[in-house]
């Protein structure tokens, strides 16, 4: 069992948890994720690794309450445990293969949408520790939903906040902020966008105009997360790839976002259907 | 009774069973088993034994049944098989033991599988354990994967006194036995969990949620955790797709996804959180056990099901019994048919399969006649879910993270018949070496490798 050591509410529907998982903590890398399960009948839910401490044997995750399973995760308290906590899964971010000297010459821009701030954090932290220059754009609907701002400021050179309603920072979406930044002469070698699929799609459209190399992290549907089912398949560069073992990070310009968004909504009607619990019509007479 | 024919096995009525997930076949009772056992003529040179990949002493255990010596029958089987309750249920007997039984030349072969199942079920129901506690030999062995290959290897090593730990990527041990083969063919709690607990009782530790190659590498198992040898039985779980237009439409799933949702995640049960989408009309592409399992699962979840297969029923690799059961339950078949495109709505939901008719040409490498397209014979099949069951290959993760481990062009690990790989101390067997095969072959390979490991460790 994987015990919850700490829990912190970051926003009304977002919480951070530090979980005891020594094996995962000792091999985790930026860009990877884990799969958790709550209870015997629980779903396998993929969540990004937001921090890890090999010495303490703990892994930090940040969860947003969106549906039945994430609500179960959110409801767990310190001292309670996850039934399962498997990982690290997925390919680590490409930059971990670069030398410190090379990274010191590089300028990175991260664009985080909503909850995306959490998965961006371990990457920014890693690059900062290696001496790279890192700026971050954090976008959220409204002030309450801006998370991890303080942590981010510790590891980033510049943190640009924007909110859709202008309640905090720049008023507008991350794409507008990105455009402004690039129009005023900011230069980057590499950008990384993590957030809702639709946001990543439009960041890609914007970045393309500036020829800015861009990586995105795809939060597809998943079941096993080990390459066994193909639920997570996406079209990248015209080829079918499995996000759980070939990704989750891909070159943004090669991703078929429309297909990816459509596939993500596969179970939407079913999830929203209150009666979906009875799947074979038994018990209805 | 006419000894020409097998004692029929009692089964759930097809009309009833399509509405539940309980086991289809009830198996023999004592009387029926004795009657069937009496059909075996106790050949001096039993051909059946040669047909069984692990050479179970078939006439001997059948004789023990006849004599009413059930512990004896169980012990005879246990010498060669560690999963008899599973193999009795899922072996393709018609092409193995029963396929060569002398009785089968003129009449029905002896129902060896059903008898084996009867003995194994008896042992379970009567708590008869064939395990003997071993003296520890001080050697530590790691097993990657908890499918039949891993379980069989672990059993033999533990019996020899090794300290064995199985590492499993998923949250439940059993491999295909839990995520692939459905409840109505292989009961999970009753049979699979019981068999796994037997392995645990021998002192074998099972650590789930460990993805070898990610959570820990094989090198780390040797260097950091002090294992003396590693057996890789990670199976062939990577699903193949057709590579035709429309394959990523919503509603197109691999059989592995569909079956994993239903079996491992228990999506058929109202209590489970995992959703499954079944639709009203399901088309299943393929002709193996996997296709039959997907079809019959979809049927039980309430859909009308049509199987699309590019050869004829004669060439279908599925067990004869499964095809027969599928037909009884109302699955329909489109033989000599191959999909060329998946059709869908503008919003990307499946509406059908565009198919082409095939005819059988010259035999290919497998000896089966190769299907060739009949030009201009395209037609459409309506469906709102398409399940692709075309087979699987090995996951390259372990090979990629284990320097010096030779792999073949299908990403399978190269190992000889004794399970020896190109890396000293690393052994492999089962589907990861052979490609998708059978439970009994995987188990046999696991046991061979256990022998080689014991030799390697000098015990
Ligand atoms: C690699 C990866 C990393 C992820 N990291 C995180 C993370 O760090 N924190 C976090 O909170 N979530 C993360 N997610 C998303 C998370 O797994 C889903 O939000 C979760 O599965 C939803 O489960 P649910 O049962 O609560 O919602 P459901 O009831 O399944 O769905 C609720 C709504 O969310 C949508 N939805 C379902 N799955 C996803 C998904 N994967 N992405 C976006 N929307 C989805 C559904 O369409 C539905 O409308 C990640 C997903 C992936 C694949
Ligand atoms: C739907 C279906 C129906 C079938 N029906 C029949 C039948 O009727 N009769 C028959 O004889 N055969 C049948 N088969 C085939 C049979 O199940 C397999 O040949 C057999 O299970 C192979 O055993 P294995 O131990 O090699 O691998 P598997 O059973 O595949 O087990 C491998 C295990 O290793 C785990 N693993 C993989 N990678 C890693 C890793 N990196 N780290 C840790 N763990 C890992 C997997 O999660 C899995 O649990 C069927 C197969 C399927 C899919
Ligand atoms: S293990 Fe399989 S092949 Fe061998 S005797 Fe039993 S059913 Fe027949
Ligand atoms: S070949 Fe048939 S009849 Fe002969 S020993 Fe085997 S099971 Fe009995
Ligand atoms: S989630 Fe099953 S293959 Fe990726």
Q: Tags for this entry?
A:
heterodimer, A: 285 residues, alpha/beta, five-stranded antiparallel sheet, disordered C terminus, B: 459 residues, five-stranded parallel sheet, 18 helices, 16 strands, binds flavin-adenine dinucleotide, binds iron/sulfur cluster, binds FE2/S2 (inorganic) cluster
Question: Can you characterise this structure?
Answer:
The complex is a heterodimer of chains A (285) and B (459). Chain A starts with a strand and ends in a 13-residue tail after the last helix. In chain A, strand 13 (190-194), helix 7 and strand 14 (214-217) form a beta-alpha-beta unit. In chain A, helix 6 runs parallel beside helix 7 (197-209) and helix 7 packs antiparallel against helix 9 (257-264). Chain A has helices at 22-27, 68-75, 100-104, 117-129, 149-155, 174-183, 197-209, 243-246, 257-264, 268-272, and strands at residues 2-11, 14-20, 33-37, 45-48, 51-53, 58-64, 81-82, 84-89, 107-113, 133-140, 158-163, 170-171, 190-194, 214-217, 233-236, 239-242, 249-251. The longest helix of chain A is centred in the middle third of the chain and has 13 residues, at 117-129. Chain A is globular. Chain A is built from 10 helices and 17 strands. Chain B is of the alpha/beta class. Helices cover 33% and strands 16% of the residues of chain B. In chain B, strands 3-2-1-4-16 form a 5-stranded parallel β-sheet. In chain B, strands 6-14-7-8-9 form a 5-stranded parallel β-sheet. In chain B, strands 10, 11, 12 and 13 form a 4-stranded antiparallel β-sheet that branches. Chain B is globular. In chain B, strand 10 (337-344) and strand 11 form a beta hairpin. Classes of the chains: A alpha/beta (285), B alpha/beta (459). At the A-B interface, helix 1, helix 2, strand 8, strand 15 and helix 9 of A face strand 5 and helix 13 of B. One flavin-adenine dinucleotide binds at residues 90-91, 144-150, 167-170, 175-176, 180-181, 210-213, 233-235, 237, 259, 289-290, 293, 319, 395, 397-398, 430-432, 436-440, 442 of chain B. One iron/sulfur cluster (SF4) binds at residues 52, 54, 56, 58, 81, 87-88, 91, 93, 96-97, 112-113, 116, 440 of chain B.
């Amino acid at each position: 069992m994987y015990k919850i050591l700490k829990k912190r509410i970051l926003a009304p529907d977002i919480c951070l948890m530090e979980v005891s998982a020594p094996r995962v903590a000792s091999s985790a890398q930026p860009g990877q994720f884990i799969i958790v399960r709550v209870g015997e009948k629980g779903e396998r839910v993929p969540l990004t690794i937001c921090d890890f401490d090999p010495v303490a044997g703990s892994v930090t995750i940040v969860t947003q309450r969106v549906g039945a399973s994430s609500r179960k995760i959110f409801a767990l308290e310190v001292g309670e445990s996850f039934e399962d906590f498997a990982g690290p899964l997925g390919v680590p971010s490409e930059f971990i293969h670069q030398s410190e000297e090379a990274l010191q010459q590089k300028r990175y821009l991260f664009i985080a949408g909503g909850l995306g701030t959490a998965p961006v954090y371990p990457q920014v932290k890693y690059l900062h520790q290696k001496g790279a220059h890192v700026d971050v754009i954090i976008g959220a609907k409204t002030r309450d939903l801006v998370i991890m701002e303080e942590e981010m400021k510790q590891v980033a050179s510049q943190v640009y906040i924007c909110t859709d309603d202008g309640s905090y920072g720049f008023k507008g979406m991350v794409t507008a902020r990105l455009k402004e930044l690039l129009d005023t002469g900011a230069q980057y070698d590499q950008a990384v966008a993590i957030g809702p699929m639709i946001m990543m799609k439009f960041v890609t459209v914007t970045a393309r105009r500036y020829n800015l190399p861009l990586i995105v992290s795809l939060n597809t549907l998943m079941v096993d997360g080990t390459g066994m089912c193909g639920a997570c398949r996406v079209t990248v560069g015209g080829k079918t790839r499995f996000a759980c073992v070939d990704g989750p990070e891909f070159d943004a310009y090669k991703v078929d976002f429309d297909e990816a968004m459509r596939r993500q909504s596969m179970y939407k009607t079913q999830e929203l259907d209150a009666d979906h619990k009875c799947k074979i019509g038994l018990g209805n007479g | 009774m006419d000894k020409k024919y097998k004692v029929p096995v009692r089964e759930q009525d097809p009309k009833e069973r399509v509405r539940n997930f309980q086991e289809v076949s009830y198996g023999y009772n004592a009387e029926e088993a004795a009657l069937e056992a009496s059909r075996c003529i106790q050949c001096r040179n039993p051909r059946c034994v040669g047909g069984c990949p692990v050479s179970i002493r078939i006439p001997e255990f059948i004789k023990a049944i006849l004599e009413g010596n059930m512990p004896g029958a169980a012990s005879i089987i246990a010498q060669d098989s560690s999963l008899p309750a599973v193999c009795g249920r899922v072996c393709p007997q018609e092409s193995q033991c029963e396929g060569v039984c002398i009785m089968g030349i003129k009449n029905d072969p002896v129902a060896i599988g059903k008898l084996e199942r009867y003995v194994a079920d008896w042992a379970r129901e009567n708590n008869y354990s064939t395990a003997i506690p071993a003296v520890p030999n001080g050697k530590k062995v790691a097993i990657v994967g908890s499918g039949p290959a891993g379980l069989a290897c672990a059993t033999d090593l533990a019996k020899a006194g090794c300290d064995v730990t199985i590492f499993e990527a998923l949250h439940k041990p059993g491999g295909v036995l839990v995520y692939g083969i459905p409840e109505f063919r292989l009961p999970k709690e009753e049979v699979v969990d019981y068999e796994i607990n037997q392995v645990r009782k021998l002192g074998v530790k099972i650590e789930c949620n460990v993805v070898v190659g990610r959570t820990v590498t094989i090198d780390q198992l040797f260097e950091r955790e002090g294992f003396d040898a590693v057996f890789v039985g990670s199976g062939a779980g990577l699903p193949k797709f057709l590579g035709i237009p429309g394959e990523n439409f919503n509603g197109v799933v691999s059989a592995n996804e569909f079956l994993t949702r239903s079996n491992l995640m228990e999506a058929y049960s109202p209590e489970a959180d995992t959703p499954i989408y079944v639709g009203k009309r399901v088309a299943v592409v393929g002709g193996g056990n996997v296709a039959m399992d997907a079809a019959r699962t979809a049927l039980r979840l309430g859909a009308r099901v049509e199987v699309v297969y590019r050869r004829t029923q004669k060439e279908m690799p599925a067990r004869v019994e499964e095809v027969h059961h599928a037909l009884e339950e109302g699955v329909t078949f489109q033989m000599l048919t191959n999909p060329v495109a998946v059709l869908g709505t503008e919003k990307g939901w499946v509406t059908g399969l565009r198919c082409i008719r095939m005819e059988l040409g010259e035999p290919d490498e497998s000896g089966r006649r190769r299907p060739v397209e009949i030009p201009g014979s395209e037609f459409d099949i309506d469906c709102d879910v398409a399940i692709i069951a075309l087979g699987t290959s090995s996951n390259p993760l372990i090979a990629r993270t284990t320097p010096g481990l030779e792999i073949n062009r299908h990403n399978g690990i190269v190992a000889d018949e004794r399970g020896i790989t190109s890396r000293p101390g690393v052994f492999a067997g089962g589907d990861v070496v052979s490609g998708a095969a059978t439970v009994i072959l995987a188990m046999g390979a696991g046991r061979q490798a256990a022998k080689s490991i014991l030799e390697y460790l000098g015990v």
